[in-house]
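Let us begin with a simple case.
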Amino acid sequence: MERLLAKIRSPQDLVDLSLPELEQVAAEMRAVLCNLVSSRTAHFASNLGVVELCLALHTTFDFSRDRLIWDTGHQIYPHKLITGRYDEFGTMRTKGGLMGYPNPHESIYDLFMTGHAGCSVSTALGLKCGDDLLPGEEDRHSIAVIGDGALPSGIVFEALNNAGGLKKKLLVILNDNKMSICPRVGGLAEYLDKVRVHPLYNGLKSEVLRFLENLPVLGDPVEKLLGQAKDSIKAGLHHGGMLFEQLGIRYLGPIDGHNLGHLKRFLRIVKDVPGPVLLHVITEKGHGFKPAAEDPVYFHTPAPFECEDDGVVSVKQSSSRAYTNVASEAIAHQLASNPKVTVMTAAMCQGNNLEKVRDGFPDRFFDTGICESHAVAFAAGMAKAGMRPIVDIYSTFLQRSFDQIFQEVALQNLPVTFLLDRAGLTGPDGPTHHGMFDLGYMRLFPNMTVMAPGDDLDLPAMLDYALAQPGPVSLRYPKAKAERVERNLAPIETGRAEIIEWGADGMLIACGTQLTACVQAAAALRGEGLDVGVINARFIKPLDRQTILRAVRDCAFVVMVEEGALMTGFGSAVLEAANDVRLDTRHVRRLGIPDHFIEHGERGELLADLGLDRDGIARTCRELANQLGIVRGHGALATAGSARHTG
């Protein structure tokens, strides 16, 4: 039982606790985190690593007034536990429960929904500048907590450059745990490693910390004291922190991020220093739970597990094969068979299941870190040189590289293949991670071919097709169990859909892996006397106008199904094509994601809510049949006006 934690209703309840009591709260918070992941997947190792930092921040600042932004907000769980959400914590990542990321609708202590990395410094700086322009708000502190994995994002350095120039009072806390989701990569990671392992880091427990602990409460101005500490650290590190100093950012650290007393001391020192400060904090991902500390990659979002009395972790493994597995196997096959194929990801090697690809083809695997814009432009350069790059990035994260998709890839008509993992609804991760928009933003660009596999048979065949094309190709698939529609697989041909079965009454046109649900719905409807067929669209661009417009023209009703935003999506493309040839589309319905953000929940729950599961699709067909007066069992000829051409 959480003896102390259960009494914390707001951060104000922490203020009068002694240091040993705060350390007890930290232990209780870790116990709650362990209990949570015994029942569901949740972000784990990253949250274990920031418990002391969270407590130190909330006992030094008043974030009911001050500003706090957690970058890549999956490490928000400890913050939620002490900001009035302890009683609801068991609902984390469930439909209607707490979100696994910051959520302003839940608490005044959450200012932004932050699920993408790198924007904390920009938003914290904007908050500070905005507060300074409002009468009576100038005394608010503004703090960004950013991980070393997110630090290389280009926008971070844009923000640091701006902060150094504006000289606004801003505290940036660099939470350095040597990790992104996977081990961090790149030159900046090596730079931080040099700072981290310097003898001064160990010496902080002695020379520097003794110096700081002996500072009088009253005496020299804080500005002077910080300058002395800064000079000492710079002298010891030679070039440590100079990268930030040259940008006009005062640098202090590195310090032990699991020593609450030292954290609080350093935060008090920097609290009233004018101008931007970067405090370098060293933490351990998975701290306090040995299996997570030893394998923070797996324990980032582990399958539910139980920790037995002897400390052994029993993991509840899933035996199902996901579309991500199908894609990674297809990538490995392409790398093995074609020496010109390369693959790159943006800090998501594990998420994209590319560990075997990385290990098997180290010279042709590239992890750019959380730098999606760079990854796409980098791929463009590689394609221009004559290689066949595959960019394997989550749909939601690829949005960050929109301009590079346009400028460096589509405009140049370069053969870059985009594999968009997590397209559609990602379930418990919620609105920051749902891949809702890629069909719309990819089909905008000339030269771009846009595809969606109907099942696990389509995906490898489509990748093979994509890598043979002269221009860019986008290929999307969901975070879901791989499914298969048994059939004689039609070959992948440019702009050609696959007719699974033609229906006399109506047609379901599946864009992507809703194909299985459409086939199941059609089977149920045929059992009720409605002859409904199914088309596997395969191509969003170029659209198979011949097949799809035939269905619009000749069938009593047509239902288009897509796991993406309706606005600018597949259904919109069909309606545009129908309009071009003046077809009546009053009997056509689009099923997809409406024009609002979708909250978190299990993927199956969300699909059902949106009418995108088998039952919802069948229900829409029944409603259309009733509206159109279709006599079940007699086919489309039983309705008036089955010919839809008006031109």
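The second case is a distinct protein. As before, the sequence precedes its structure tokens.
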Amino acid sequence: MFDFVRKHTKVMMFVMFLLIIPSFVLFGIDGYNSYRDKGAAVARVAGHDITQGEWDAAHKSDSDRIRASNPNLDAKLLDSPEARYATLERLVRERVLAEAADKSKLTTSDTRLARELQDDPTIASLRLPDGKLDMDRYRQLAASQGLTPEGFEARVRRDLSVRQVEGGVTSTGFSSAGAADVSLNAFFEKREVQVTNFTAADFATKVAPTDAELDAFYKANQAMFQAPELASIEYLVLDLETVKKSISLNEADLKSYYEQNAARLSGNEERRASHILINAAKDAPAADRQKARARAEELLQAVRKAPESFAEVAKKNSQDPGSAAKGGDLDFFTRGAMLKPFEDAAFAMKKGDISEVVESDFGFHIIKLTDVKTPTLRSFEELRAGIEADLKKQQAQAKFAETAEAFTNGVYEQSDSLKPVAEKLKLEIKTAANVLRKPAPGATGVLANAKFLIAIFGPDAVEKKRNTEAIEIGPNQLAAGRISQYTAARTMPFEDVRTIVRDRVVAARAAELARKEGMEKLAAWKAAPAAAVMPVPVLVSRDQSQNLAPQVLGAALRADTSALPVFAGVDLGPQGYAVVRVNKVVPRPAPSEANLKQERAQYAQWWTGAENQAYYGLLKERFKVEILAPRPVIGQSNLALTAPK
């Protein structure tokens, strides 16, 4: 296909012109964009699709957020099929709850939103000593989640509305003391058990497979003895840092940038103000707001008559708990730190001025500007390092798109080598050996990127040794590679894996012998319990396993104790077999009143959680939820043996 395109470029351009131009006329550019952006549906809620693109974007956002808070976390865990499917389930749940909130007309008022933001401990940590919000850090918090402050607040508002959907269940969930005690007593009761293990390892010495048996096992299970496909590769990486290194700045550009930005780079003007606040929420009744404004007008007249009394009037009358005790003083602040109406008024005043009544979402303010701090202009040499960094970053970002296009075109047009692109863009050709189709444990950078590895092992790269296309491996990061040597997946010769074959045959036969011996003992001991010779009994419960295997503990606790002793057999698979004897049931000791209260509360939480999950199940039915993407099979893996060296 690619050969035909390369050899018949003009023909293909003419064909595409005939196909594409009429369709633009009929459907328009927006039609193409919407089709491209929509993508395949991976789930459906109330008839509305969740697309593959939305799923990918949501998972990227989740992964970026988790990596930011846990930088040492293995990136492969976040990109596993299970992790991706969990993101899809979260998206579906959000859509279901949002749909329920919309149908039930559940909304969040401005007052409720403001209270939630004020009570949030993360936002509280952004407050300065004087109680004001550090707006720069607030913007950074929102930006870390890919949002503006307005977008962040809109999301909080939406979350509060959605939370009301489940609130009716979670806030009313309860369990009676009687029901809780029955379940808790069963959970904490103990059983006296004896366990005899028939471990496969104990029977291994009784297994002596012949060469013919080993050969037969090898031929019947060749999938167990596969060596994975391997590749030695060359690759290039283009990123913003690489582009920066290619940029040289001249003195004239640096000085010109300084002259244009000296004031900004030297710092921001700061203003100090005091205020008197009369509270009135934005959504308060009109009469209440009018009453608050009237009170503010009265106080304004008072301080206008006696400006020196402003601090005293603020102490007695301001309803801002953070500043009233300080005579309304808000200390110094820059633009962006205050509500916009307040900021606009403060930065339009002269030192000593008292404003008119200023209305904001919190009420009505009277502002007195007490000081102005103008930044000292810093010299060119003082700012030189920062100017160089800023200019290089700006120019690199502007140049990256152009360089990325040259990179993308170069690896495609000269597909038999990376050298021309490397020389043109001054990139280093890197190499790696024994590269697998999936990221190897401990892999970093491009070798840990699943998209890049899929491209490297694509048909064009493997069969024709061509360059891959340019792959986006991160923000402002492209990579392309090619295979220099390829070894296909293969069944390793019997002689290379003979020891492994024998170990597997012995393990399987030993497990069979252990299982057979265990089942025979179980039958004999059931027939004559008094003849059972077993280890010392131990007391076990769900919270005290005494190091028993989960399957064994489960069998002991599930056993019918209406007639004791009772025996149960447990198949432990490759580990062998176990026989459990339950001798008696030991009731749960009476807990202290404090512990009983805590346990009942915990049980009520479990019960409420189960009710909430059941309610969510009903909502999924009501809104006709369909998850179209297949659920990954947990625990399934592609393990391959490595050939002995």
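The first helix runs from residue 2 to 7. The CA atoms of residues 36 and 53 lie 10 Å apart.
Keep these points in mind for the review questions at the end of the chapter.
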